Request: fold
Amino acid sequence: MISLYSTRIAQYLAAALLLLLASSAQAGLWPQEERVPGGIALLEIPQRSAAAPHVYFNERRVYTHQRDGRWYAWVGIPLSQTPGATQALWRTRDGDIALPFVVADKAYPTQRLTVAPRHVDLSAEDLARVQRETPELRGAMDDFHPVRIALPEQVTLPLEGRRTSPFGFRREFNGQARNPHNGLDIAAPTGTPILAALPGRVVAQADYFFNGKTVVLDHGLGFTSLYCHMSQFTDLQIGDRVEAGQVIGYVGSTGRSTGPHLHWTISLNGARVDPDLFLTEQQR
Reply:
């Protein structure tokens, strides 16, 4: 009797452990919420079915993730978003249901940089090149591919180094105001390996006028990451699958750059969001 009782207790504990591990695995990666321009709103969706819900913000479909049996939308808030009340839309068979939230203001500091005049006052030839490249790059960053890729518990920091430009800086080049800094800059010696932050597929790999040698990875459902100013690529091709921590290129200073560094951008539903929201305290 004692042996049978002990066996049942052991089986119960083993089953409980498996449930706990399954729950942890389901939770997966979870960003920090900050409802500001350049931040993320985590919105619970009152849907209990296994099928992923369809949620939209600013007419773009939003990444959704299931945790502890509940669905959540990871709403990327653009840096250009006006603070105040807004809403995402949960699309159902009976029509759209509003998921309201409030975007708070955030004052980002200003950064003043001096670069070669060619990168500020573009020639007709350079302007034409930028106009050709922009749709390709934005398409790679902003397209929604209905593929769910299993994410690890934690993002891999693409590069260890000194942070030179945080996310969100209002930037001036040679005294002229430009768009806010939509990524995180990390300085390191030329040739330092750059790692994929998350598993995904290569959807762009080219040498662009502003970004230099650049790789874009698609992590599924409108979740993408971009790595700029590389000195060289690895032997990856468009469409290749990469794993988190895999080398995808090497630090350089190509494109509009003042020194060797990585410019790293994360995008959700076409909005550039602060990479720090995906990092642990130890990684920041």
